[in-house]
Amino acid sequence: MRVLHVCSELYPILKTGGLADVAGALPPALSELGVDSRILVPGFPAFMAAIPEKSLVASLPAIFGADSITIYASKLPDTEITIYIIDAPGLYDRPGNPYSDENNQAYQDNYRRFALLGWVAARFAEGIDSKWTPEVIHGHDWHAGLTPAYLKASELATGRKLAGSVFTVHNLAYQGVFPSQIFSELDLPNSFFSIYGLEFYGQVSFLKAGLYFADKITTVSPSYAKEIQTLDQGCGLDGLLSHRKNDLHGILNGVDQAIWNPSVDPIIEAKYSAKSVAGKLKCKTALQEMMGLTVQNDTPLFGVVSRLTEQKGLNLVLAGLNEILKRGGQIVILGSGDKSMEEAFKSAEAMHPGSIAVKIGYDEELAHRIVAGSDVILVPSRFEPCGLTQLYGLNYGTLPLVREVGGLADTVIDSSLENLADSVATGFVFNDFTASDYLRALRRAFALFQRKTDWKKVQKCAMQQQFGWDSSASKYQELYQEVAVN
Ligand code: ADP
């Protein structure tokens, strides 16, 4: 089975969020099952630099304002996975974030930049790599949303279906919506600009294109697959999604056990495992020292590693700081995003040094240290398609405190009395997106922390959870089998 993944981020080369982790982990997991998975990415500087040795696959005619378009292939460093890179310097050779300029403004020509990604993917189905043609093309998020549309256009033009298509929504809130005027530049049949196509309230939606034209749709947890069919969480696409519910599958993300695993993690202070958890205390002490927190073990240390956005519920974390301080706890926060939240956390740190530590920015190594050194990892999201941070917390015996929504609801079990009695608890779960519900969960965490034996039991149960990629990769493989064109 030959599958081409189409995406804009890929760990460890270029990452702004969980999409990169998935794109980096799923293809190798599929390869283990015998699926020949390859990856197509835009030629952002990070990709061009990380992969210096490339072989020429094809030169393509100018389109979407790119002067030259060259497709290269190579192996991803230290793997057998083939990566194809679209070298189109006029569109992609820009420093920094893949989507926005240094002022965090989305690039005006993003529709061209990501139209090219989907358009090139469809050319693969037509055979631009004479040695390898995909049977399935799997697009990820709105950046790859036009892929199924270009495949459909190609099918209409040739009268032949060239490849099956799967489209995965990693976050429905990011949709790639552009004014209708850009449609004429997309090189798609006029009929596609319709409610039965990529038109979305008079505009062009790349995400809707993916959802409408793909043979199968997936999203990253079973709960989120249901939630996005509702008015509340459908972001205007609930009608289409419930119409397509038989083609919509929720497949939980996994954890890359080679990277987020305390028994092999080279970044953290001391390695540890469910069998021997002693090293975790060393990680806590090292984190406290490094972040300027008072070094003490008899109080819980809460950790946050997150984009600072409305989605992630950081306003609840802000609202709960006093509760943590009042009970003698500590909190360490790593994140960047919303400027007013960054400032609010920084000023809280200034008022309570020793108890609150804040690092604004993106720091992969510190993320590992926080996940290993904290006692509780906070993920109180308003909505959460899957969430990886709570899965990393489980792996590291850092009990997740989460809201009961999306993938968080599917992966964490509350330390209620009955769940403790049944030895199934793995963290703390609250229901309503309100400060009072969140505070109650914080109090449960403090209460359990005092009961060392119970805490250790929950920690062990958390670390024994199996959120690897094997079973999820098999589910993707089954879907590929249903849609493959060979
Ligand atoms: P999302 O993709 O919505 O941001 P996920 O939980 O799916 O949320 O994935 C977030 C990923 O990004 C995790 O790997 C997390 O460790 C990482 N991450 C988020 N913020 C930061 C940061 N400031 N520094 C380092 N890693 C971060």
Largest sheet: 9 strands, mixed
Strand content: 15-25%
State the low-pLDDT regions, or none.
none
Assembly form of the protein:
single chain
Task: Tell me about this structure.
It is a single chain. The chain has 18 helices and 18 strands. By secondary structure, it is of the alpha/beta class. Strands 3-4-5-2-1-6-7-11-12 form a nine-stranded mixed sheet, sandwiched between helices. A six-stranded parallel sheet has the order 15-14-13-16-17-18, sandwiched between helices. Helix 9 packs across helix 12. 50% of the residues are buried. The structure holds adenosine-5'-diphosphate (ADP). The site of adenosine-5'-diphosphate has 18 residues, from helix 1, strand 13, strand 14 and helix 12.
Notable traits:
486 residues; alpha/beta; 9-stranded mixed beta sheet; single chain; binds adenosine-5'-diphosphate; 6-stranded parallel beta sheet
Secondary-structure map with pairings?
Elements: E1 2-6, H1 18-32, E2 36-42, H2 45-50, E3 55-60, E4 69-75, E5 82-87, H3 89-92, H4 110-125, E6 136-140, H5 147-158, E7 164-169, E8 177-178, E9 199-200, E10 203-205, H6 206-213, E11 216-219, H7 222-227, H8 238-243, E12 248-250, H9 279-291, E13 301-308, H10 314-326, E14 330-337, H11 339-351, E15 356-360, H12 364-373, E16 376-379, H13 389-395, E17 399-403, H14 406-411, H15 417-421, E18 428-430, H16 435-450, H17 452-463, H18 470-483
Parallel strand pairs: 1-2, 1-6, 2-5, 6-7, 7-11, 11-12, 13-14, 13-16, 14-15, 16-17, 17-18
Antiparallel strand pairs: 3-4, 4-5, 8-10, 9-10
